[in-house]
Amino acid sequence: MKIVVSRIPPEGLNEHAAYDPSTMDMDRSDIQLKEPFEVDAAIVKADEEVVVTAKIRAPLHMTCARCLEAFTSVATPTAVFSYQAHAADVIDLTDDVRQEIILAYPMIPICRPDCKGLCSVCGQNLNVASCVHRSAMRPSDSAAS
Ligand SMILES: [Zn+2]
Ligand SMILES: [Zn+2]
Hints:
Elements: E1 2-4, E2 13-19, E3 31-32, E4 37-46, E5 49-63, E6 70-75, E7 78-84, E8 90-92, H1 94-103, H2 139-142
Antiparallel strand pairs: 1-8, 2-4, 3-5, 4-5, 5-6, 5-7
C-alpha cells in the first residue's frame, strides 16, 4: 500500500489493500502464508507526521509443534506506524506490514490448547487415538485440580 502524502485530506483517509505474500519471503519452516493477507488502514496527517493505524488479517498455515499436523489460524495484529512526511513523499507501508505479521507469528505453533501431541515411543497422534504406551504417561490426568 502506497500513500501519497499530498492526497491525504484533512479528515484523513481509509484504505484497504490485499497483498500477495508469495514474493515477500515470509515463510518459516513451520509457518507459511499461502493466501493473500489484507490490510485496513486509517491514515491521518498532522503537521509533518503521518500516522497509520493498520488492521491486518493474515491466514497462517502452520505445523503443530506437538502433533505435527497442519492447521490454519488467522493472525489479526493491529499496528500503528508513524512517518515523518513531506508533501511530496510517497509512503510505502509494505515492509512495515510484513514485519508486523512476522512479529505476530507464534513462537511455538500449537493446533489447539489441549493438543495431546505424539506418543514419544511409537509416534501415534494421541489426538486421533491412544496407544498402548498412553497409560504409562498421562500427566494431565494426575494433575487434575
Ligand atoms: Zn497439535
Ligand atoms: Zn505409543
